[in-house]
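User: For my dataset I need records formatted as: sequence, then structure tokens, nothing else. Please produce one.
Assistant:
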Amino acid sequence: MAKGAGEDAAVTVVEYASVTCGVCAAWNEQVKPEFEERYVNNNRVRFVFRELPTAPQDIAVAGFLLARCAGDDRYFEVVDQIMRAQPEIFQGQGRAALVRIAADAGLSEEEFTQCVTDEDAILAMDERVQAAMRAGVTGTPTSPSTAARSPIPRWKAWPP
């Protein structure tokens, strides 16, 4: 999924992340809002978010499927909600958190269940994971980007 500038953008930032990755969630909460305000929302940068589920993978996969079922216009909002629900998820309340987030996105529990058990969607997720592996991505967060050639300064809050 992408937002910001178009495909012909001078700068594209690609982030491989997981909704169950703690460092990803910290970046999402602490750095991403300013990054988006300064660069993405004004179309100076194209931001591409690539899904790479991490443990607990069943929750991460279900979360990404849910975000896609919520629709393109709600995708990033749902991903944000899931990342912010990590404390709940890691206390064993993953399904309950996802059902609540699905309801916030306008999906019933039945629609949520259909969404996260859709075989075609699961196969498509697997293909995205395989594409990440072929690209040499082995964990999250990973951000191979054109930013190294950009005039955008390095983020002081960017995790080391």
